[in-house]
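New to this. Please check this protein:
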Amino acid sequence: MFKAICRSVTMRIFSAALLVVSAIAVQSCSSSTVQTRAKSESLYDRVMSSGVIKCGYVVYFPGCNKDPNTGKLSGIGIDTLEQVAKNLGLKVEFTEEVGWGTMLEGLQTNRYDMIATPIWTNSNRARLVDFSDPLYYSPIKVWVKAGDKRFTEANLSSLNNAKFVIATVDGETAEVIASEDFPQAKKLSLPQLSGVEQVLLNVSTGKADASFEEPAVAEAFLEHNKGAIESVKMERPIRVFPNCWMFKRGQMEFKDMIDTALAQLINSGAVEKTISKYEKHKGTLYRVALPYLKPKE
């Protein structure tokens, strides 16, 4: 009789334990399924479901400008993206202002879907993110003190000499070009938070022999420092960088959608109108070539 009671109690305990384990297993599987679905949801799926493209942005004219009084954003990248979203039946939400050094982190952690400011592409960034097709291109020219005729396109390689000094900012484009093309030249490098104006000022005062900068920025410097610097006349710029929107790597459905909508605006002439609106100095930004040729009549 005692053995039968023990056996009955044991079976009840075992059955209860089995139910608890089963419940935990079901809950775990359900949670795992939810997590798997969340992880597998693409950027395209998320945007189409919400109807909103959430954007981080870096304030950098002419791609993105911020009104100090109203906070309203404008610029080539901002205006064009809003047109793209409108044509796709979507809305744009500018959720966060970021810096050059922090913009990638927000993409990786899904705080926003893309960077609305057109960004220069490079190999280091390409390892971590994807880019849209270019909206426009930024040429980089060689800048010297006004009246300095020592350098021409034919003899520019002579700048690769320890007797010359190149003005740069730590980690920025001028430093990269100096290291790649003129490694023998000395560098007068400023901390990363320094403004480009100080770099060009070092050239204009003779502290440095040359630097490398996009014409739009150099022309802005010349507005307040008339006749201080000039560019070395060259058939081709020393570098040309595409300006593209940036988003998390591997989101090809989203990229294809954005690229298709952007191509529509380039082919219609809408992007040209937007670039012309914000190009303060004509000829400082290069356009995307149209992907066709008109037949000869």
